[in-house]
Q: What sequence folds into this?
């Protein structure tokens, strides 16, 4: 057989084979429905439904009224805040089922075609004693405009605090933003201009560490880094820089010094485009 | 030869007509974002013709021209004027098609012309195989899901693809036959009056001649002697600008200022976000070779392999032959490589998926057809050859059918289609035209007077859906998701915020969606106010 003909035949065979592989990774709607029915019955308050791989949307169309996420990457710290995960694992390209199973004890729930549901009872669950986004109504927000004491951003409209100046941007509130790694439910905290400090004072909560997350919005990467600081009782527990690129970064901070309420502060030398959001969990 | 050429002419006509019928029969795509603008432009431009006799000389006054042709001046008028006429004839007068298809018909006609010339180019280049190469080239072209999708739209990408191959063919003939000079000039002019990237077509034609006649280059006594360029190439800018002027009525009174502004707009085009292998590019430098890499992932695998084989074979053969055949081969190579090469420079805006370098596709498919016929030529048993040809078309054909009318979302077997593309962080969709089938759900379930946030679908598209009876008249288009009862969300990562805004409003479970292999393309949400009713 001449080489060009051989290449053509190989291309036809490879194309057909890969198409068969593609089809083999497609789950049927009926299977999704079977699994969704069982998951809905098994769901109880406090559970989190996790769909993998992230691009499979049918589970959301069937179970989206319950707490459900489709993470692009598995974040064990975040998932360990739940005692039990209900995992809907589709045998599709990019599945992270193994990573989810590694979080705890696995029990199969139901299996239908290419869709499996399993419960993962999380090993060493970490229930936060305070979660910034959930407990936002209980924080104090201060803006330093220079030349005097910081002022309160006191106007609470049910989901956010508005600061006295430039309040279209300078507010602190619950949002779900488009970050590089997908949707992120977090707290909008756009830094003030002129290098001034915007801070959130959290209510006192017992804990040994603070899990701090922050990131910039995908469509509006900042021009300059944002300085992030965590203080307690006048002592600096953490100081770091969030670099001006999209994506969510987390840091674990030991709460081994100082006393009193925790203060999370942000500032930057150039706040143009700094669509910045944060979240924080105080963990036992 | 003469008889064969006449026969090819008849086949080309049949191919063009067949493609036109095929496109008309399958024009079920949603109205993409820019089509809304072009629908409106076509209607407004057509009004000038409707009032021409009534207005007399006033029709040529600057204020009249500005009023009737002053919308969407960033593109020349030819295709929009043609769309206006096809809409008038096929929809208004004959009532044979819907309003949108009436507009689209103008664009489809030019794609069909391109199909005919793709056949002619292939058949002439592969004289040994006769018409079969031309036919196969057309088959490969319209079994490329991205091409098949764009071939239907009331936009400029299908027409410029068609006119590029038509002008290139005519230019090839004009290099040796005087009677083809005028057609070459007219076709180039019409291409220039269709889309600005015809400028690169002219540059490519010149480059191809210089390369094809490379043996005529000489350097002696300190003087460089260049090969002669065909007369058509020299006359093309003059004829092209004249035809562009005719079809740019907005610039009739102030041509330098307004046509200059049109080109200036494209020279300084804004950059749109592009999602490519997990990185969202919002400004230069864009990744090198973007167009080549996207082509490698969006052309069906068999066509891709055959096309690359064909290009290599053409390059080899071009070194061995001379004259007309050599020029044809080099024209094919240059026409195939220049469009993606232009887009592949890091400073060039790369929005719009694959459509901006689609003029390469007829030539790539001719190369694929040549390679296939060369390959099956070595088969000893004559009955097997047709089976291999058919087998080569099966997967491209199947994938085109499978993804219709969402061919612009297609990714090939190499990355396992939509799922693989999602995992690799490649653009899932663009242009906001995917929601059409979800209008059925909306029409059925929405309350009277419900407000609809349409995301990437613009108001002109919405109006056309209403006009064509695809969306209910009582539904209200709104720009703000917070005031909506229903919301569409196109799953483009750069605009995904809209879905999260919907979630913020308490709607976290889509009512319906369009998905491929489970990967969502567009979702429809019922928001809290509507859900509470």
A:
């Amino acid at each position: 057989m001449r080489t060009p003909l051989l290449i053509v035949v190989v291309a036809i065979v490879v194309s057909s084979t890969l198409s068969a592989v593609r089809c083999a990774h497609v789950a049927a709607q009926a299977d999704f429905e079977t699994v969704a029915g069982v998951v809905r019955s098994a769901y109880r308050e406090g559970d989190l439904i996790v769909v993998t791989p992230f691009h499979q949307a049918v589970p959301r169309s069937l179970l989206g009224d319950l707490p459900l996420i489709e993470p692009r990457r598995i974040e064990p710290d975040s998932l360990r805040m739940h005692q039990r995960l209900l995992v809907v694992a589709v045998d599709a390209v990019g599945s992270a089922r193994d990573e989810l199973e590694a979080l705890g004890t696995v029990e199969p729930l139901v299996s239908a075609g290419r869709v499996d549901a399993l419960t993962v009872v999380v090993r060493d669950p970490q229930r936060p004693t305070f979660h910034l986004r959930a407990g936002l109504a209980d924080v104090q927000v201060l803006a330093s405009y220079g030349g005097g004491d910081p002022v309160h951003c006191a106007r609470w409209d049910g989901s956010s605090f508005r600061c006295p100046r430039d309040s279209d941007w300078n507010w602190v509130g619950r949002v779900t933003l488009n970050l590089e790694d997908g949707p992120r439910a977090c707290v909008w905290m756009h830094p003030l201009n002129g290098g001034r400090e915007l801070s959130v004072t959290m209510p006192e909560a017992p804990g040994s560490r603070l899990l701090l997350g922050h990131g910039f919005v995908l469509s509006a990467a900042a021009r300059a880094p944002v300085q992030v600081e965590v203080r307690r009782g006048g002592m600096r527990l953490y100081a770091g820089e969030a670099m001006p690129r999209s994506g969510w970064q987390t840091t674990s901070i030991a709460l081994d010094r100082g006393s009193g309420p925790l203060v999370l502060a942000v500032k930057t030398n150039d706040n143009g485009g700094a669509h910045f959001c944060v979240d924080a969990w105080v963990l036992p | 030869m003469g008889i064969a050429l006449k026969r090819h002419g008849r086949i080309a006509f049949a191919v063009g007509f067949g493609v036109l019928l095929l496109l008309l029969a399958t024009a079920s795509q949603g109205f993409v974002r820019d089509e809304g603008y072009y629908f409106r432009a076509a209607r407004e431009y057509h009004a000038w013709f409707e009032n021409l006799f009534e207005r007399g000389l006033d029709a040529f006054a600057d204020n009249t021209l500005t009023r009737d042709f002053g919308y969407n001046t960033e593109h020349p008028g030819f295709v929009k004027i043609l769309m206006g006429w096809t809409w008038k004839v096929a929809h208004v007068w004959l009532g044979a098609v819907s309003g949108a298809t009436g507009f689209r018909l103008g664009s489809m006609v030019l794609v069909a012309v391109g199909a005919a010339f793709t056949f002619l180019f292939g058949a002439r280049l592969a004289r040994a195989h006769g018409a079969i190469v031309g036919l196969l080239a057309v088959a490969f072209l319209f079994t490329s899901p991205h091409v098949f999708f764009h071939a239907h739209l009331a936009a400029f990408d299908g027409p410029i693809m068609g006119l590029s191959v038509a002008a290139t063919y005519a230019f090839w003939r004009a290099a040796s036959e005087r009677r083809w000079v005028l057609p070459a000039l007219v076709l180039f002019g019409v291409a220039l009056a269709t889309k600005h990237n015809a400028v690169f077509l002219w540059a490519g034609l010149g480059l191809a001649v210089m390369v094809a006649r490379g043996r005529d280059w000489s350097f002696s006594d300190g003087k460089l002697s260049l090969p002669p360029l065909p007369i058509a190439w020299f006359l093309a800018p003059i004829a092209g600008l004249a035809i562009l002027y005719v079809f740019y009525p907005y610039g009739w009174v102030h041509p330098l200022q307004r046509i200059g502004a049109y080109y200036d707009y494209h020279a300084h085009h804004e950059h749109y976000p592009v999602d490519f292998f997990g990185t969202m590019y919002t400004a230069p430098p864009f990744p090198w070779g973007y167009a080549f890499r996207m082509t490698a992932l969006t052309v069906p695998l068999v066509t891709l392999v055959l096309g690359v084989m064909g290009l290599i074979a053409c390059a080899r053969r071009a070194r061995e032959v001379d004259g007309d055949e050599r020029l044809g081969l080099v024209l094919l190579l240059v026409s195939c490589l220049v469009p993606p090469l232009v887009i592949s420079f890091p400073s060039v805006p790369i929005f719009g998926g694959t459509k901006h370098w689609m003029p390469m596709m007829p030539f790539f498919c001719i190369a694929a057809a040549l390679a296939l016929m060369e390959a099956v030529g070595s088969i000893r048993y004559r009955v097997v050859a047709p089976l291999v040809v058919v087998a080569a078309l099966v997967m491209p054909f199947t994938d085109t059918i499978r993804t219709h009318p969402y061919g612009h979302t297609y990714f090939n077997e190499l990355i396992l289609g939509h799922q693989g593309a999602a995992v690799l962080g490649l653009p899932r969709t663009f242009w906001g035209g995917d929601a059409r089938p979800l209008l059925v759900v909306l029409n059925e379930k929405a309350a009277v007077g419900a407000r609809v946030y349409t995301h990437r679908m613009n108001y002109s598209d919405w109006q056309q859906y209403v006009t064509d009876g695809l969306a209910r008249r009582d539904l209200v288009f709104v720009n703000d998701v917070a005031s909506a009862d229903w919301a569409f969300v196109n799953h483009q990562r750069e605009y995904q915020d809209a879905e999260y805004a919907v979630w913020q409003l308490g709607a976290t479970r889509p009512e319906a969606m369009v998905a491929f292999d489970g990967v969502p393309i567009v979702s429809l949400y019922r928001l809290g106010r509507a859900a509470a009713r």
Notes: DSSP finds 23 helices and nine strands in chain B. Chain B touches chain A through 54 residues (CB under 8 Å).
